[in-house]
Amino acid sequence: MNLETYSDILKSLVHQISICCVKNTPYYHLTTEIIQMIESYLDDSVFFYKNKDIVNYYASLAYAHGWICAGSYLGLYSIPFFPISWRNIEFPKEYDKTHLNEKTERYISMLSCAIPSVSNCLMIGSPLSKASDHCLYIAKLNLEKGEFLYKQDSNIPALGYLCYGYGWLDTAVRSGLLHVIQRPDLFTTEC
Length: 191
What we know:
By secondary structure, the chain is mainly alpha-helical. It has six helices and four strands; from the N terminus they run H-E-H-H-E-H-E-H-H-E. The longest helix is centred in the N-terminal third of the chain and has 25 residues. InterPro entries: DUF357. This is DUF357 domain-containing protein. Pfam families: DUF357 (PF04010).
């Protein structure tokens, strides 16, 4: 799948979001914040695309995708199911391979530091505590996949996994499921 198709699919998913929360409730406000974050990252991707920055274009899309899936998992809204394999993403023939390598290394470092910088702040056994644990699991799993693929010199799928996992982690922090205990600079939310 080329990046333009991936972008079109994500934009279509956002337009199909059906909010599940009652208006004017805290969960409704959280949902609208998450949708605004998704839209911001998709807007960033357009900026990067126009400036021929393929690496950041892709990173913004995968990051937005993580937010989309995490919000759906939390039951804040429903979206059509859209599985993806970052191994199937196709970059154009001309792109900055050095930038891709640097960005992938940076995301491995950032996500490796971000994961131990949060803790589940909810009562053990509550459904939200389980959701917190799941979001953290998804971030860790995608870090592992990203690191493995990076070591195999497969930086395109590696960066996709890393950005997607980071999107899940940031969504959990924004949702109040995870508490930032150190390194607030690694998160896109006010701590």
